[in-house]
Amino acid sequence: MKFNIAVISGDGIGPEVIEQAKKALNAVADVYDHTFLYKEALMGACAIDKTGNPLPDETVILCKQSDAIIFGAIGDPKYDNNPSAKVRPEQGLLRLRKELGLFSNLRPVKAYDELIKNSPLKEEVIKGTDIAIYRELTGGIYFGIKELSDDGNIAFDGCSYSVEEIERIAHLAFKAAQNRRKKLTLVDKANVLETSRLWRKTVTNLASQYPDVKLEFLFVDNAAMQLILNPKQFDVILTENLFGDIISDEASVIGGSIGLLASASIGKENALFEPIHGSFPQAKGKDIANPLASILSAAMLLEHLGLHEEAETINRAVQKSLELGITTEDINSERSFPTSKVGDFIADYIQHQEDSNLNFQNIHMGQITII
Questions:
Q1: HSE toward the beta carbon, residue 142, CA cutoff 13 A
Q2: What is the model's pTM?
Q3: Nearest to 294 by CA among 6, 21, 16
Q4: SS3 of 277, please?
Q5: Contact 199, 167 (CB under 8 A)
Q6: CB 89: neighbour CB atoms within 10 A?
Q7: Are 14 and 74 in contact (CB under 8 A)?
Q8: Contacts of 144 (CB under 8 A, 6+ apart)
């Protein structure tokens, strides 16, 4: 099969980790007789530097014409450290989500046994954690009215949600729960916020359509605490934009490395896949960034395209890399591998699964992996 993939490498370590994701996709294409046609596009600080626009119109057009989008990272210190900057890299990503109608963000959070020792939380607390966080992505306070008084002393950010916005992502979360452990937790602040009360009312009304799913509610402050005290209690978490941003980043420490957390942003017609680790400018160009989240994002992309067996092959390759310790320095500082070598191993495993235990010897010696 042939698929058109828009590639937005972005800023910082984005190009490096995206290159490893493409290695995995190319290996899948070779094994399963697919063709992935990549077309590069600009977004973020690199786009501002070249065009003055964090999201050029050409990028939007390309994304709309593609079967899926894979994205690296966004952000640069020269903008991050300048709060008065009028044009910012993040504006490009926010606009792209809106332009493509990417209303649902899915972030899987899994505690890998091989990485539990890296987590700041106790093993008995996190072992077995497997959560799917559904975050509404195109509404709420991030897209509300923003005002600053003439004297600069008073600022205002408006937050609004409609029943339609809530229902469309709630349906996705309920359906996901049906295929998992049949439990959905709505995270809100309904004791204070009117928007949260609408969320709770709307989701409660929908629950009757999913009688096999147990619906629970948690205020966001309690949910943040429960994620640390007992993350295993959660199956699917559903929440609004701001709360989801905070909760999903908090959950990222559970697995032992933010470098393993992939995400998908889904709309009715378009889908974007990205790691959540950010641009990590300190590591740019050093071949030390963890590419596994980007590679796992590629697996989610394949799932979206209906290539389930191919996606599972990538997931097995990542699992094998963890088992054999073929990882970057953020996971194992005493014996680490460069970004590019981890990508080589993943691609080799996909193409030669029976030989990859032997190929580990070659990687350890810094050689090409194919036997």
A1: 20
A2: 0.87
A3: 21
A4: coil
A5: no
A6: 27
A7: yes
A8: 157, 158, 159, 160
pLDDT tens digits for range 118-177: 888 899 999 999 999 999 999 999 989 999 999 999 999 999 999 999 999 999 999 999
User: What are the tens digits of pLDDT across the range 327-354?
Assistant: 999 888 888 999 999 999 999 999 998 7
Show the CA angle centred on residue 62, arms to residues 56 and 65, nearest 5°: 150
Which residues are known to be catalytic? 142, 189, 221, 245, 249
Q: What is the pLDDT of residue 371?
A: 35
The CA distance from 273 to 24, in Å, is 14
Strands 236-239 and 214-219, by their bridges, are: unpaired
- Neighbouring C-beta atoms of residue 176, cutoff 10 Å: 17
The pLDDT mean for the chain works out to 92
Listed in sequence order, the DSSP H helices in the chain are: 14-32, 45-51, 57-64, 77-80, 89-100, 123-126, 163-178, 194-207, 220-229, 241-251, 292-304, 308-324, 339-351, 356-364
Tokens encoding 72: 């690296």
Tokens of 10: 């972005």
Among candidate residues 155, 165, 184, the one with its CA nearest the CA of residue 241: 165
Q: Are strands 262-266 and 104-110 parallel, antiparallel or unpaired?
A: antiparallel
CA distance 185 to 322: 30
Q: How many angstroms separate the CA atoms of 44 and 354, rounded?
A: 41
197-222 exposure pattern, b = at least 16 Cβ within 10 A, e = fewer: ebbbebbeebbeebeebebebbbbee
**Which residue type, as a one-letter code, is found at position 192?**
V
DSSP per-residue letters across 156-212 = EE-----HHHHHHHHHHHHHHHHTTTSEEEEEE-TTT-HHHHHHHHHHHHHHTT-TT
DSSP state, 127?
A: T
Per-residue model confidence as pLDDT tens digits over 188-205: 999 999 999 999 999 999
Contact at 8 Å (CB) between 43 and 92? yes
Closest CA to 121 of 18, 192, 226: 226
